[in-house]
Amino acid sequence: MASSRPMGKFWEWGKNIFCVGRNYAAHAKELKNALPPEPLFFLKPSSAYVREGSPIVKPYYCSKLHHEVELGVVIGKSARAVPQEAAMAHVAGYALCLDMTARDTQEECKKKGLPWTLAKGFSTSCPVSDFVPKEKVPDPHQLKIWLKVNGELRQEGHTSGMIFSIPYIISYISGIVTLEEGDIILTGSPEGVSAVQEKDEIEAGIEGLLQMQFQVVGQKSRP
Predict the structure, then answer these.
(1) Which partner from 77, 129, 133, 190 sits 20 to 30 angstroms from 148, CA to CA?
(2) What does pTM read for this prediction?
């Protein structure tokens, strides 16, 4: 049965943003992290979404805001304990996302054994592109994703470099948390993450499919 909700605007009604960390070996290495034996995932609130035309807001408590460009997988129908061979039937399409990270805050959270919410879940921490139906992507593991800051190429990688494949990730997460229609899974970032400053212009894209652009602004003080 077709959804009555517009999948092309999943960010307006989808509930969950699942983020898979350390899913590219070179990115794990650049942050001096060990490769995970299973997918490492965490959540962002749906209020983290921001669309082109609105800015990325650097939190008042953050001095080192990093960009991480990622392919997002949009869930088209509920998935609970789905085997790998059936996982792609639950995919509606794709989007490009940025996992904006307050890196200095994350480092402090790690030292103290605290959750990463302050570092990963703040408002505008998930810039999101237009929706791409899965019919337009013959193989999501053969895409080039890239990111530029003020015209300088910072990240460029191929989704073939993922440690854990999309079917594996869907199967793994759905065995722990039920995936719902409109949810998105960010599948990890290639190497090249670096800091952005206020007034920086971020451009990112999936080669041959789409691109998006955002400006960074600063939150001056605690509300």
Answers:
(1) 133
(2) 0.95
- Closest CA relative to residue 69, chosen from 204, 211, 210, 214: 204
Per-residue model confidence (pLDDT) at position 25: 84
**Beta bridge partner(s), residue 158:** 144
φ/ψ of residue 22, rounded to 5? 55, 40
CA dist., res. 24 & res. 14, Å (int)? 26
Render the chain in DSSP notation, one character per residue.
---SS-GGGGGGT--EEEEEES-BHHHHHHTT-PPPSS-EEEEEEGGGEEETTSPEEEPTT-S-EE--EEEEEEE-S-BSS--HHHHGGGEEEEEEEE--EEHHHHHHHHHHT--SHHHH-STT-EEE---EEGGG-S-TTS-EEEEEETTEEEEEEEGGGBSS-HHHHHHHHHTTS-B-TT-EEE----S---EE-TT-EEEEEETTTEEEEEEEEE--S--
> What are 128's strand-pairing partners?
51, 97
7-32 pLDDT per residue, tens: 999 999 999 999 999 999 877 677 67
**What's the whole-number mean pLDDT along residues 200-206?**
98
Q: Tens digits of per-residue pLDDT, 31-69?
A: 677 888 999 999 999 999 999 999 999 999 999 999 999
